[in-house]
Every structure is written in structure tokens, then in C-alpha cells.
Design brief:
By secondary structure, this protein is α+β, with helices and mostly antiparallel strands. The protein is built from 12 helices and 11 strands. The chain has a 9-stranded antiparallel beta sheet. Strands 1-7 form a two-stranded antiparallel sheet. Strand 9 and strand 10 form a beta hairpin. The longest helix is centred in the middle third of the chain and has 19 residues. About 35% of the residues are buried.
């Protein structure tokens, strides 16, 4: 690997960012051993990277284990060009709903893009539907203007994650506690308190959590281990609040010819998980969509060269039409901006499971061997 020059990110830094993205609780000693660096060198690099990129340590949570489904809502103003007040009013209405995790104002085919989660409510026999979601979203438009919404259910964990808002976590905790039997409520409340602490800082010591919450020693560790084994906690991970990207683009790849698309689907999967020297992933989030049928990509782009390369890759996929939308402003919420190990990605699993003649399983690091 090349050495760092004038504090720029080098190969070692990129590897460290991958370790922190996949398990930020890994001991410095383990990372140093893997990279054949001294512990002092790794510690110094982590401190520099934290400052440079504004790294925040948090959790990646699998809400499907709690009975939630993910959706994308795409909105287009139809009466007139939206004013700043229109956008602010939409923001306030969307943000008031704890199930809406991220909302963006974009330029292009759509004006508003949101990601939200809906409870399946299976125990009440009241499963969410696109029709029900649409009815709800009609409330989220400004006075004097109209938004036409398209709602799409998306696959869970296709690629990337959206960070969950504190407002949703707080409501989730109360809901989960309320439905438990009385004898289990105290235990469930402890689980939620530990998860909130780890969402705020997933590198915090478990002894510190025990002291803060007045728990017995090792209580928070045992709770976190249980949540991880139950797959509610996916990753002890990180995100960058100051990433090395100038812009964020949303790309809607509409599938207009299924046969042609399927012939290039393997190439698309390979492009998604292509190994790069960048300190962040090529894509922050990817979702399947069905209104219209297609795939929605969210890509942090560093400059014109990066955007041109991205366009060239996606335009090579036959049977599709592309809409490129610049994210003018993230109204609230955010994606995980990190360096994910694509050996663990959904596209890699698809390549192995569905294209097994040409793709073999790749070696995976044991990020959680010591946790």
C-alpha cells in the first residue's frame, strides 16, 4: 500500500475506514495486526480520519425483524414551480411523521424523494398497502400547490442503509414496550435504552453504558449481544458528516425492456460492487422500485469526472432509460456514507447465488470474531 502524503487518504486509511464501517468496535490491536501497522499508527490515523470526515459512530438496524416494510415515495409538483415556502411546508409535514426517515428536494424528473417505513401490523390483520400509503401522502403537500406521488415498496438490504431518526426510535421503543406482556416490559425498556445509547455512539464502552443507565455490570453487553444475535443490530458502523463528495445524485433506472435488461443485470451487479480506492462507497443506497418498474440509485459524486463515469456505466445497461436528478438539499435525515465491505453486499450474494457458473464466493473477513 502507498503511504499517506500531506494527510491525504491512502490505501491504509481506506482499509481502516472499511474496518470502522463493518465493525467500529474492533480493537485497535486487531486492526493493526491485520494491516501490519503499529497500534500507535492506527490510533493516529483513526483520529485524523475522524476529524477529516466528521465520522460519527452509530448502528445499522434491520427494522424488518420488527415487522416493518420499506418504501420510496417520489413526488412531483404539478400545479406550479415550487417556491421555497412550498418546500419548507412539505418538509415540516413530512418531518412530523416519525416513519419518514429521509426527505430530499431534487431537480429533474421528481421534486421530492422520501424514504419511509410502514408497520405491517400483521398481528392486527391490517397490512400496509401502496393504496394506504398514497392516501397518507396526500396530506404532505403545501397549500396552493399539488404533489403527485408515486409509492414503491423496496427490497430490504439491497444495498446501503438509511439512518433512522431519533423520533422514530423513540416511538418504536414505546410501541414495542406497550405490546409486550407486563412481565417483559422492564426488560424491553432496557433493550431500547441500550440501543439508543449505541445509536448515539456505537464505540462507547459497555461499562460506561451500565454506569449511565444504572445497570448491573455487563448488563448492556449482554443486551447488545442478544440484539445482535436476533439480527436487530446489523452492524456497529459509522457514517461521515463531511464526506469527500461535492454532490449527491438520485438516478432512476426505468426498466423498459426486461429481456435486454436481464442480459446486462450481471454486469450491473459487478459495477455496483466494483472495488475502488475511494474512501466512500460508490453508492450510498440502492432500492428496487415498481412505480414505474426500475431501480433507484443514490450516488455521492466528487466532481464532473465522477458523474461522467457513473453515467457511462449505467447507460451501458441495455433495456433501460435513466433519469438523473441532483439532490439540491437533504431536507432531513441521511444515508450511511461509509466504506462497506462489498463481500457482504446484496449484489455479491446475487452474483454467487444466481450467476454461480461465473462467480465464486469471496473470502470474508471475520469482523465480529471477537465481539
Amino acid at each position: 500500500m502507498e503511504a499517506s502524503v500531506d494527510g491525504n487518504t491512502d490505501g491504509y486509511d481506506t482499509e481502516i475506514l472499511t474496518f470502522l464501517s463493518m465493525n467500529c468496535r474492533l480493537p485497535i490491536k486487531t486492526i493493526a495486526k491485520e494491516l501490519k501497522l503499529s497500534e500507535a499508527e492506527v490510533s493516529a490515523r483513526i483520529a485524523r480520519l475522524e476529524k477529516k470526515y466528521g465520522i460519527k459512530y452509530t448502528l445499522s438496524i434491520d427494522i424488518s425483524t420488527l415487522g416493518y416494510t420499506e418504501y420510496i415515495a417520489l413526488g412531483k409538483f404539478s400545479n406550479k414551480m415550487p417556491t421555497e415556502r412550498d418546500i419548507e411546508e412539505v418538509k415540516e409535514k413530512l418531518e412530523s411523521d416519525p416513519h419518514v426517515q429521509i426527505a430530499m428536494h431534487t431537480s429533474g424528473a421528481y421534486d421530492i424523494i422520501t424514504y419511509y417505513i410502514a408497520e405491517r401490523d400483521e398481528w392486527k390483520g391490517n397490512a400496509w398497502s401502496v393504496e394506504k400509503s398514497l392516501a397518507k401522502f396526500w396530506e404532505y403537500m403545501p397549500e396552493g400547490n399539488r404533489i403527485d406521488w408515486s409509492i414503491s415498496w423496496i427490497d430490504v438490504d439491497y444495498y446501503g442503509k438509511v439512518m433512522l431518526r431519533k423520533k422514530f426510535i423513540n416511538e418504536l421503543g414505546e410501541d414495542q414496550i406497550a405490546i409486550d406482556e407486563e412481565s417483559h416490559r422492564a426488560e424491553r425498556r432496557k433493550h431500547m435504552e441500550v440501543m439508543k445509547e449505541l445509536l448515539e455512539n456505537s464505540r462507547i464502552g459497555f461499562n460506561s453504558i451500565d454506569k449511565k443507565l444504572h445497570f448491573n455490570q455487563n448488563s448492556s453487553y449482554n443486551i447488545a449481544k442478544k440484539l445482535f444475535n436476533e439480527k436487530l443490530i446489523n452492524w456497529y458502523t459509522m457514517t461521515m458528516e463531511n464526506p469527500p463528495a461535492k454532490s449527491l445524485y438520485a438516478i432512476y433506472m426505468r426498466i423498459v425492456n426486461e429481456g435486454k435488461f436481464l442480459k446486462k443485470r450481471e454486469k450491473l451487479m459487478e459495477d455496483i460492487i466494483e472495488r475502488t480506492d475511494s474512501p466512500i462507497d460508490k453508492y450510498a443506497f440502492i432500492a428496487d422500485a415498481n412505480a414505474p418498474r426500475g431501480i433507484l440509485f443514490f450516488a455521492p459524486v466528487s466532481g464532473d469526472d465522477g458523474l461522467d463515469k457513473l453515467k457511462k456505466e449505467l447507460e451501458s445497461i441495455d433495456g433501460t432509460e435513466l433519469d438523473f436528478m441532483k439532490v439540491d438539499k437533504i431536507l432531513f435525515g441521511g444515508f450511511f456514507i461509509r466504506k462497506f465491505d462489498n463481500a457482504y453486499s446484496g449484489p455479491q450474494s446475487v452474483l454467487v447465488e444466481q450467476y454461480w457458473k461465473t462467480h465464486q464466493k469471496v473470502e470474508r473477513r471475520k469482523y465480529y470474531k471477537e465481539i
